[in-house]
Known about the structure:
It is built from four helices and seven strands; from the N terminus they run βααβββαβαββ. By secondary structure, the protein is an alpha+beta fold. The chain has a domain at 5-108: Gcn5-related N-acetyltransferase (GNAT) (Aminopeptidase).
Amino acid sequence: MQTSQENLPAGDRITLMQREDLAAVHQLECTSQADPWSSQHFVDELESRVATFDLYWCGEELAGFLCSWLIAGELQIQNLATLPQMRRRGIAAKLLAHAIERSKKQGLTSVCLEVRVTNKPAITLYERFGFTTDGTRPSYYSDGEDALLMTYQL
């Protein structure tokens, strides 16, 4: 599960989001999500004390991002997105592994997230990492779709 910059393909890198990345991150969000966050939501997260954005770059192209909160030893995955044309290349897995490894250094004990019940590729990814389904949040998303609550205990 561990990933570091050295284990990434040549030309790829993971960086922390900066204010100048906002437009590219929001564009990726709008391209990849049916119900995207607003630009203001990204600004609010970037200014939050608990939020961290990891960005995955393939050369100069933003290919994915992961927004997470680390609170009292629990990493809460808020948003994970990959450009549609870059899917099935392991980018989401590398971002998730990177966030977990980074957070272990800060006392991480568990990871939790919500995922659409119909998002089978994401559910498969999380299960591969060792996440288990702990319940369902009925009508969690704005379109009324349920979410699975998944957790991973270290």
